[in-house]
Amino acid sequence: MKSRKIMIITFSILGCMLLIFIIGRVNLSIQFRKQVKTLFAQSKSISNRTYHESQLERLPEPVQRYFKYVLKDGQPYISYARIKHVGQFKTGIEKDWIDIKGEQYATTEKPGFIWKGTTSLFVARDMYISDKGRLVVSLLSLFKVVNAQGEQYDQGELLRWLGESVLYPTNFLPGESLQWLPIDTHHAKLTYQYQGLSLFFNITFNVLGEITEMETERYMDEQHMETWVIKASDYKEFNNVLIPTVFDVIWRLEKGDFSYAKFIITEVEYNKAEKF
Predict the structure, then answer these.
(1) Whole-prediction pTM value?
(2) For 95-246, where are the alpha helices, taking DSSP H only?
(3) pLDDT tens per residue across span 128-138
């Protein structure tokens, strides 16, 4: 009889925990949906503009090679992107890899994105919305263990949006805020000015014109900037655009490279300003 009571109490506790977990996951999903809606509401469509090779005339040669490789003449500009991926993630240098799946939304007329990464232990939301960067991590979808924001995150999240323009490449076309500077036949420097922030990437191109590596300086924590590298490979066509589908994201530290994110893109759709 005593063991039966213990079993009943145990199952009751587990049932309550499961219910709390489900409620937490539902609440988090509602928050995420609202944030996606806010993101899209802040940025206008620019898909009435079209890309033409004549725009490339004064660009460095490897940059011209890139656009001729990934875009088609007369192609509409990308206003919105929604992306899904799978992969692995590390929460620290000494930590093990954990499986992660991600869902991301981005806008181009007004810089912005939001990403949700889901693992068995936590859900992370990385975002740049309303000109502000933020990282939120919820343990078991219930307990908010990270809620980071401030100038360092404004810089870091805008850098992420800019680097991930390789997934919506008309955003890399030159304009008032974005410029390309020559380095050599396989490298060029990208500069970007926005809201008082001056950002850059040193970018490597292969002989085909693919962007294979992007390097910059980003805040690794609230005090220290380190070299941040995005490696890209395995280009495939989505909606008439060639984009890389395999990413390795690295902190290049004095003690050596620390790879912390390995993502594989599984789905990309453009110019649909709504959640999957």
Answers:
(1) 0.91
(2) 151-163
(3) 999 999 999 99
Q: How far apart are CA 208 and CA 56, in angstroms?
A: 16
Q: For every residue of 127-149, which 3-state class applies, written as one string?
A: EEECCEEEEEEEECCCEEEEEEE
* 2-270 CATH, one of 1.20.58, 2.40.10, 3.30.300, 2.50.20: 2.50.20
Domain boundaries defined on the chain: 2-270
Give Cα 243 distance to the centre of its chain. Answer: 14
Q: What residues have CB less than 8 Å from 224, skipping those under 6 apart?
A: none
Q: DSSP state, 97? A: P
- Among 229, 272, 275, 219, smallest CA distance to 252 is for 229
CA–CA gap between residue 241 and residue 75 (Å, rounded): 9
Q: Residues 155, 163: contact at Cβ < 8 Å?
A: no
